[in-house]
Amino acid sequence: MTRRRRTAVCVVALAATLGLSTGEAAAAATVMRTKSAAAAAAPPEHRNADQDEARNEGGSPVGRWETQQRPQLLQAFREHVYGRPLPHPDAVTYDVTDLGATGDGAAGQKVVIAVTGPAGTARFTLRLFTPAGREVRGTFLLIDHRSAVDDTGSTSDYAPISQIVGAGYALAALDAGEVAPDDPGRFRDGVIGAFHHPDAELPDNAGRTIAAWAWAASRALDYLLPVH
To answer: How far is CA 131 from the centre of its chain?
Structure first.
């Protein structure tokens, strides 16, 4: 298949995806073929001038991505896919309990994070296991969907705490079920309930379960980053 033929096929496929009619798609393909032929016929210095002009008008490709395309994409995901995240809480507290040393050479902490919003206060648990007596090389944050990490710090294939700690890293495990139950009838029972009154309908663009997990992970990072 020639380059012009491939260009026409790609344009028609894109036009179909966008819901254009067959005639509109054919017209778009014709325009693309004409422009492609003109660009190929232009001398190299003319093509380079066109490219420089395009860069000057819209900035560099990286600049356009950072200032235009990325914000537009994030906005589309907030409005139509995952929903808008919860706002910053009115207050956050961390209730820290020392879990002592585990048999795998880890030192454990249990952190109950309480977040307060306009509709109340919600709590969820973050468990942190670090190499005892060693410098921490980095921390892995796990959104634990299986309640696999408990106060004992027992290791498993899902949460290999001993392997992580033995390599000099820490594991922080966030209990996803406490943040927002993975249940269509109960997902508001966690942190969402602190920001939306249970008797009120959620806005159509409000984040649900996945957005709540991500939001809680950010609150966990608020605790972890100053320390680690």
So the answer is: 28
Residues 38, 34: Cα–Cα separation, whole Å: 6
Residue with tokens 């017209």: 27
In the sheet where 91-101 sits, what is the strand order?
Answer: 91-101, 106-117, 120-131, 170-175, 139-144
Model confidence, pTM = 0.68
Q: Which run of H or E residues covers position 175?
A: strand 170-175
Instruction: Outline where DSSP puts E strands in 23-152.
Output: 91-101, 106-117, 120-131, 139-144
CA dist 13 and 196 (Å) reads 43
CA nearest to 145, candidates 90, 201, 213: 213
Joined together, the tokens standing for residue 12 give 């028609």
pLDDT per residue, tens digit, the chain (228 aa), is 544 433 333 333 333 333 333 343 433 443 344 444 444 444 555 445 555 554 544 578 888 899 999 999 988 988 888 888 899 999 999 999 999 988 778 899 999 999 999 999 999 999 999 998 888 999 999 999 999 999 998 999 999 999 999 999 999 999 999 999 999 999 999 999 999 998 889 988 889 999 999 999 999 999 998 644
